[in-house]
Sequence to fold (141 residues):
Amino acid sequence: MSRLEEHIDIDAPAQKVWDLLHDVGSYPAFIDGVQRARESAGNRARLDVRSGGVQREFEAVLDDRAGEQVLIWQTEGSPELKGSLSVRPVDQGHSQVQIRLEYEPGAVHDAFGGPKGMAQVHRIENAVRGDLRQFKSLAEG
Fold:
């Protein structure tokens, strides 16, 4: 299992950032490959993802810890992805978003194709960093 932890500072209040991050329907605006995202029954979300020319639908189980501004999630099925998104206030007008992700690079390759081994790890790391930059732009805009 590979692990990735990244964070980004955002020039926006923590509550505004949390509200945007918590809005599953906004995910296509900042997560590369997500074509459509919607909340489903209970604590679940459905994501239509296109990557490497492959279209897949995922269902994720969400553990919303709103009081802590932490969203923990895990996909059902393959590839198994799990992680958390958290928002921390820096001061009144600034915040930090942190993402933690656990995944099996081989399973991601099997689901979407693309490179193998460390090249797949680098691909995922670059995608997550790009998603964070896109989220920052959206939250500050």
